[in-house]
Design goal:
Layout: H1 3-34, H2 44-82, H3 88-106, H4 110-181, E1 186-194, E2 200-202, E3 205-206, E4 213-220, E5 230-238, E6 251-255, E7 258-262, E8 264-269, E9 275-281, E10 290-298, E11 301-310
Parallel strand pairs: 3-11
Antiparallel strand pairs: 1-2, 1-4, 4-9, 5-8, 5-10, 6-7, 10-11
Length: 311
């Protein structure tokens, strides 16, 4: 049994003792009244005094019982308020018992006339007390249940947040993979030297005097992930000293955070399949002797490199 239930049981036991005493006093009073006329004349004064004492004892006992019961009800009401509840009927009962107590203290005869009425009120108060304590217990159970629900909701929200975070991370990783996979690739980059007479030569090294024009040819590899649209291709020819060959048809483009110059630019309609590309370029002036590097860019990425040598 919990300490609270033990306390309630103890209080109930004490109250029962009080009522036994009160009833015993009442019975003694009744017996005294019944035997009053059997006493001798010289004992009348003593008997009356004894009855007065008995009645005072009855009144005092009942006053004490009322006081104890009022304190119990107030304690129960305080518990109810702490649990977040309120019982208007219980409060009204407390006020009524306090009013009865005041009247009882003012009028000694009130006990005789109202004894059973007060006892009934106290019995009803006991019932209200029990109901209120049950209400306190029920409220505590409800609060515990609400705490459990709130904790579960917090746990569910935490799990959902973790799932959303995980999904966002997976989405970001997938986006990165798609971005990487969608980068085009320029393959088989070749340079064809065209002489002033229009003769073409394919190789890795050419004499500078024999180059009137070059054709840069390559293929864009198949890519099912890349968007199917028109692609702008930027081609850079980098001389041995690292300078980019530029001319009238040259310009700038963005590569990451850099701004680079391109030698030539072309556009192709890309449909996700292997696409051949051919770009002709005529340099203003002679090529520098050494290795010429070819770089092909598209959509902000370097998609292929090649080279040829000028002798």
């Amino acid at each position: 049994m919990s300490p609270e239930k033990k306390q309630v049981a103890k209080e109930t036991k004490n109250n029962n003792k009080v009522w036994i005493i009160v009833l015993a006093v009442v019975l003694l009073a009744i017996n005294g009244i019944q035997g009053f006329f059997n006493y001798k004349q010289n004992d009348e004064i003593k008997q009356k005094e004894q009855i007065i004492v008995q009645k005072d004892a009855q009144r005092d006992s009942l006053t004490a019982a009322l006081t104890a019961k009022i304190e119990e009800l107030k304690a129960t009401s305080a518990k109810l308020e702490e649990a977040g509840g309120k019982n208007a009927e219980l409060e009204a009962q407390i006020a009524q018992l306090e009013e009865m107590k005041v009247k009882l203290e003012k009028d000694a005869k009130y006990f005789k006339n109202q004894y059973y009425s007060i006892k009934g009120e106290i019995d009803n108060a006991n019932k209200l007390k029990a109901d209120a304590e049950k209400q306190v217990s029920d409220l505590k159970v409800q609060l515990a249940q609400q705490d459990t629900i709130i904790n579960k909701q917090k746990s569910d929200l935490s799990q959902k947040d973790q799932m959303i975070s995980s999904l966002d991370q997976e989405k970001a990783e997938l986006a990165k993979k798609v971005a990487v996979a969608s980068v085009l690739k320029a393959e088989n980059i070749k340079v064809i030297a065209v002489s002033s007479k229009g003769k073409e030569k394919i190789g890795d090294a050419y004499k500078g005097k024999a180059i009137e024009q070059i054709k840069i040819v390559f293929t864009i590899a198949e890519n099912k992930v890349a968007q199917k649209n028109t692609k702008d291709l930027y081609i850079r020819i980098v001389e041995p000293d690292g300078a980019t060959i530029t001319g009238a048809s040259s310009g700038e483009f963005k590569y990451g955070t850099q701004t680079l110059f391109y030698t030539a630019k072309t556009s192709v309609l890309y449909n996700g399949v292997i696409s051949p590309v051919s770009v002709s370029y005529t340099k203003e002036g002679a090529y520098k002797v050494g290795k010429q590097t070819i770089e092909v860019y598209a959509e902000g990425s370097l998609i292929g490199t090649g080279s040829f040598v000028v002798e």
